[in-house]
Design goal:
Elements lengths: L1 E6 L8 E4 L9 E7 L5 E7 L14 E6 L4 E8 L3 E4 L5 E9 L12 E3 L4 H15 L6 E6 L10 E3 L4 H13 L2 E7 L2 E7 L5 E2 L5 E2 L8 E5 L6 E5 L22 E3 L9 H10 L6 H14 L12 H4 L12 H7 L10 H9 L4 H4 L20 E3 L25 E2 L10 E2 L2 E4 L7 E3 L4 E9 L3 E7 L5 E8 L12 E2 L4 E4 L4 E7 L3 H5 L9 E2 L1 H6 L24 H4 L4 H13 L3 E2 L14 E2 L1 H12 L13 H6 L3 E7 L12 E4 L11 E7 L2 E5 L13 E4 L7 H10 L7 E6 L34 E2 L1 H7 L3 E5 L6 H13 L4 E8 L14 E6 L3 E14 L7 E9 L1 H33 L7 H8 L4 H61 L9
Parallel strand pairs: 10-13, 14-42, 15-42, 17-40, 18-19, 31-32
Antiparallel strand pairs: 1-2, 1-5, 3-4, 3-43, 4-8, 5-6, 6-8, 7-8, 9-11, 12-13, 16-41, 17-39, 20-21, 22-29, 23-28, 24-25, 24-27, 25-26, 26-29, 29-30, 33-38, 34-35, 34-38, 35-36, 36-37, 41-44, 42-43, 43-44
Helix pairs in contact: 1-2, 3-7, 12-13
Length: about 1000
């Protein structure tokens, strides 16, 4: 039995009983659901005689449910909105839903914060601390037990205005597993975060069909089936060549490295500065210096402190490490004396002989002697080092065919997007078999991939990954080994194909392969690097190419504001280049020579420049929404208004309802300032006399900004709907695939593609026939060898367990129902539906009035797909056998009824064993009328089915006529638009 106590307010100490059959108080209906995967809930239906009727206040009224036998508290929760109903007898009833106290966690919102180097327990306590600060005492929690651990406690977790419950689910449970358990005890709320809640009951008597359990229903759920497996290995590590053996920086006599923050991270520059100052710096010391930078300047190279005692004395602290000028002048180096350059301050810091003890958080200052007056080594900025050469050095720089050039050129239309990610040295122009190293580096990969053939990848100390491909028919043609350091001009291999393709990127190589046919800045033109700017004939860098800016202290990432001028400069270059509107592959020209673009490629690149986004990806009016939301923009308005609100610089307008705006069905533009919009379009009356398809609509233009918007709104083809996105100033750090630290930030993993004909997946044909293609990834974090990963994937398929079974048991069929606890695991034996298995109670549904109707669901039983198929086949076979048996016995019973059953009695007895045949005869006679009634209903159903079939045929005929009409109208429309039936232009 169960007892329910109500409290008018959550802080009340004394409540009143509203349900307890022992004392004659009962709810009309009551169901308590306790679940391991969802919030616990209680549903109560009360009539007018109940004490709680009409008194429930949502969020105020609380109830507690107890097991009367042992006074155990099963549930405490708060009321939601009630539903009222009047029965046919005129009696009013009310149904109330109550939610568990863990719903208190949705009453608080976490403020934006980034937390690193925190254990799961520390992070959870931080979230609960914030929650408790926002809610009254009765909603507060105390973190009690945490057994979930995480090997990657240094993971950066970002909380961004989520409810506390959502933050816990997303950043803890979904990320590293475990379960949140809440308990109300002695007037306090406790919260546990457990890796494996519940207890095993493997030593207790098992639940066994036909013994201590009468029956069990099994539900097979194939929703988690995988029929196309994507095996993933370890994250690809950054290659780090030893600069001593790498001649990529001015033949090894000069050091080359990072002198600025990379995506806001000063770590690489700190290490390079230490190297330049001939001092060692550990990872722990780098971390301390980064903490000092964050404390002193938050990464800004130019910030000035105008409020402390130094400022009052006329020498304010400034810059990355907040030197005051006299101190900086004492320790700075000749030629590196700009206090507002972060790298110069790092050199000055390492010039302090006591830097290891002087650098610490909470206020630091140099105390030691000056180590050097001049930099003790020669350095050159990363990426500007020498050591470049041709793969065929004796032939010089010759004219390339247009289809061999990097980028989008005539003759290269056969490639996806028309884009070429490298430079091809063909045998006709560049004869010779020896392929020479173009830039000193370490060999990091020798492999094979379907369309690349055998290829070599090298990585230089100044950050270049260089790919030599399509030149070698076999591995024996390659003359270097993985791990070997090669200098510019040394032989990489012997070409026996018709060309060698040289691809260069500063991204991780596997990351870059994703964008082999996308002109988004991932791949770099090899020609100006190999032959030098003075020699190249087609360089766009000096004239019209817009260089990518790196993130420094003046970047939007640091300042949290738009660099709108960068986008305006691109607009002006497009205007000067007489840009032509194009929606095909040529839209990517906006990234290089500004010859072609469409509205969305124009806006994509404009915003990428304005926020200094490193990756270059061109979006459309459908995908632009997601890009903006992920890069500091918030949706400011959406709807059908046909007049503009007050606009701001950088606002982005997207016309056309999301989901319906692809292609010519959408448009987008960006605000240059509060009064002027910039767009790329197919043309406007009164546009620029030079014919460029980029337009500026302001207060005095034709049309004006307001007229431009009004024209589109009132002449829109289809439903008018538009969106306004506004920059919020919160630009996330960008995940660009750059190689830094020990692991690739992009999360690129090893795949089976190199040993599986370029495919990173394995099909499972026998399961695809039954379920279709369902993709799923399985990760083996420690495997780096693609061949070993392939073996693992095949083994997984052989033994895969994809379908989840659950078993539901009724309380009337199970002794001691109350003793079973959600999360606990019990031994379950049912030879008819499953093998012996230790199963978890995943939910209980308790009927407060009729406990015998309560149910319990066991889970965690995994069956192979073949089990699923075999179960289906077995059921089909059993059904056929049952039909045959019923038919046989039915015929025998008919003989009995006719009085000729004596000869068949022995046969029936043999078939049915110990069954009482006279009783069977009586049973069949009793059910004969039901059978006849069923036949009548079946005849009626068959007639109805025939009518439906006739209607269906008529519907199909009508549909065919409609389709023909649509096709005719489509043909006429295309002719009116000047196109042909096949969709091509005239």
């Amino acid at each position: 039995m169960y007892r329910v106590i109500a409290y008018d307010e959550p802080t009340d100490k004394a409540g009143y009983v509203i349900h307890d059959p022992v004392v004659g108080l009962t709810a009309s209906e009551g169901k308590l659901t306790i679940s391991s995967s969802q919030a616990n809930t209680l549903s109560l239906t009360l009539n007018q005689a109940n004490k709680l009727f009409g008194k429930v206040r949502p969020m105020h009224t609380h109830v507690e449910v107890y097991d009367s036998d042992n006074s155990e508290l099963l549930f405490r929760g708060r009321a939601l909105k009630p539903e009222r109903e009047m029965k046919s007898n005129g009696q009013f009833i009310q149904t109330y839903d109550f939610e568990d106290i863990d719903s208190y966690l949705i009453d608080s919102v976490q403020r934006y914060i980034e937390i690193a180097n925190a254990t799961p327990e520390e992070f959870l306590k931080k979230l609960i601390e914030e929650h408790n600060s926002q809610v009254p005492e009765y909603k507060q929690f105390m973190v009690r037990n945490v057994t979930v651990t995480n090997k990657k406690d240094n993971t950066l977790r970002k909380v961004d205005y989520q409810t506390t419950k959502d933050a816990i689910k997303k950043l803890l449970i979904d990320s590293i597993g475990g379960s949140i358990i809440v308990e109300y005890k002695d007037g306090k709320n406790y919260l546990d975060y457990l890796k494996s809640p519940g207890q095993d009951h493997s030593m207790e008597a098992p639940l066994k069909i036909a013994e201590n359990m009468q029956s069990a229903k099994v539900a097979i759920d194939p929703s988690k089936v995988i029929t196309r497996l994507i095996p993933l290995g370890a994250q690809i590590e950054t290659q780090k060549p030893d600069e001593k053996n790498d001649d990529s920086s001015d033949d090894g006599t000069k050091l080359s490295g990072q002198m600025h923050a990379v995506n806001g991270d000063w770590g690489p520059a700190i290490k390079f500065a230490a190297k330049c100052m001939k001092t060692s710096v550990s990872d722990a010391e780098v971390s301390i210096i980064k903490d000092v930078i964050k404390h002193e300047s938050n990464g800004s190279e130019t910030i000035v402190n105008n409020w402390d005692s130094n400022a009052a004395a006329g020498t304010p602290s400034m810059g990355l490490l907040q030197f005051i000028e006299p101190t900086f002048e004492k320790y700075c180096l000749e030629g590196y004396s700009n206090i507002k350059v972060g790298f110069h301050q790092l050199l000055a810091m390492f010039n302090d002989s006591n830097w290891k003890s002087d650098v610490h958080t909470g206020g630091w200052g140099p105390t030691g002697s000056k180590r050097y007056d001049k930099l003790p080594v020669d350095i050159t900025p990363s990426g500007t080092g020498g050591g470049w050469g041709s793969p065929f050095p004796s032939l010089g720089h010759k004219q390339f065919a247009s289809y061999q050039l990097f980028g989008v050129h005539s003759g290269g239309e056969f490639r996806q997007n028309g884009f070429h990610d490298g430079l091809d040295f063909g045998t006709a122009i560049y004869p010779g078999s020896e392929v020479h190293c173009v830039h000193g580096a370490k060999v990091t990969r020798i492999s094979y991939m379907g369309e690349l053939g055998y290829y070599v990848v090298t990585h230089s100390d100044d950050g270049y990954n260089i790919d030599y491909q399509e030149a070698f028919s076999s591995k024996s043609q390659i003359k270097v080994k993985v791990g070997q350091y090669v200098k510019t001009g040394e032989v990489i291999g012997i070409r026996d194909e018709d060309h060698v393709h040289i691809g260069i990127t500063k991204k991780d190589f596997d990351y870059a392969l994703r964008y082999a046919f996308t002109n988004n800045g991932t791949w770099i033109d090899p020609e100006p690097l190999i032959f030098g700017k003075s020699k190249q004939t087609r360089s766009l860098n000096e004239k019209i190419f817009l260089s990518t800016k790196t993130d420094d202290s003046n970047s939007p990432l640091a300042k949290q504001e738009l660099d709108i001028q960068a986008g305006i400069d691109m607009f002006n270059k497009a205007k000067a280049a007489h840009l032509e509107y194009a929606m095909d592959y040529r839209r990517a020209d906006i990234l290089t020579n500004q010859k072609h673009a469409d509205c969305s490629s124009f806006v994509s690149y404009f915003i990428e420049l304005a926020i200094h986004e490193i990756d270059r990806t061109l979006y459309n009016t459908e995908t632009l929404h997601g890009f903006l939301k992920n890069h500091g923009y918030l949706l400011h308005y959406e709807g059908t208004n046909k007049t503009l609100p007050a606009m701001q610089t950088g606002d982005v307008i997207i016309m056309g309802k999301k989901g319906q705006s692809a292609g010519a069905a959408g448009h987008t533009a960006v605000m240059k300032d509060a009064d002027t919009v910039l767009e790329c379009s197919s043309g406007w009356p009164g546009g620029y006399p030079d014919g460029a398809d980029v337009f500026e609509h302001g207060k005095s233009s034709n049309p004006t900004l307001d007229n431009w918007f009004s024209y589109d709104a009132n002449n829109w083809s289809g439903e008018w709907y538009w969106y306004l996105y506004r920059f919020s100033g919160n630009i996330p750090e960008q995940d660009s695939g750059d190689q830094k630290g020990g692991t690739i930030k992009s999360g690129v993993r090893y795949t089976i593609a190199p040993v599986n004909d370029g495919k990173d997946y394995l099909d499972i044909p026998e399961f695809q026939k039954e379920f279709g293609i369902i993709n799923g990834a399985v990760t083996w974090d420690s495997i780096k060898d693609p061949a070993q990963l392939l073996t693992k994937g095949k083994a997984w398929i052989k033994a895969q367990k994809a379908s989840t079974n659950t078993f539901t048991v009724s309380a009337i069929e199970l002794n001691e129902y109350e003793r079973f606890k959600v999360y606990d695991r019990y031994l379950f034996i049912n030879p008819y539906v499953a093998e012996q298995q230790l199963l978890t109670v995943i939910s209980k549904e308790i009927d407060l009035n009729k406990p015998h109707k309560s149910t319990m669901t066991f889970g965690d039983k995994k069956t192979k797909l073949t089990d699923y198929q075999n179960d289906f086949k077995k059921v089909s076979k059993d059904v056929e056998s049952l039909k045959s048996t019923v038919s046989t016995i039915g015929g025998d019973v008919s003989s009995m009824r006719a009085g000729t059953f004596s000869g068949n009695l022995a046969t029936i007895s043999e078939q049915l064993g110990t069954v009482d045949v006279p009783q069977l005869k009586k049973d069949y006679e009793g059910t004969q009328k039901d059978i006849e009634d069923s036949k009548t209903r079946l005849d009626t159903a068959e007639k109805g089915l025939n009518i439906v079939k006739e209607d269906d045929e008529k519907t199909k005929q009508t549909l065919t006529e409609y389709q023909k009409t649509i096709a005719d109208l489509d043909e006429r429309l295309k002719k009116l638009e000047g196109g042909n039936a096949n969709g091509t232009g005239v």
